[in-house]
Amino acid sequence: MQSIGYRHMVDFINGKRTWDKTVTTLKRDTRRFAKRQLTWFRKDSEMIWNSPDDAEEIMAAVRKFLEGR
Questions:
Q1: What residue numbers bound the domain in which 39 lies?
Q2: What is the rounded CA–CA span in Å between residue 41 and residue 56?
């Protein structure tokens, strides 16, 4: 019941929230969770950020990593 969406849907099913309020709070809580994730990832010095447009470079880095194991 702690995952995003469960609490929201249970409240809706139990009649504690309207559908519009459920969707609004679910979107808000999802944004907040994503922001916390980004904050956590940014603190990790080993994190490597890539653009989705760099697929070739990403695949090369993954291959290199796997070969080193």
A1: 6-67
A2: 23
Asked whether residue 24 is domain-assigned, the answer is: yes
The pTM score is 0.68
- Does 45 reside within a domain? yes
Q: Alpha-carbon distance 37 to 5, whole Å?
A: 17
Give the residue from 13, 17, 43 showing the smallest Cα distance to 28. 17
Q: Could you give the number of structural domains in the chain?
A: 1
Assess if residue 1 is contained within a domain: no
Half-sphere exposure of 18 (CA within 13 A, CB side): 3
**pLDDT band, residue 68 (cuts 50/70/90):** confident
3-state helix, strand, coil in the chain (%, to 5): 70, 0, 30
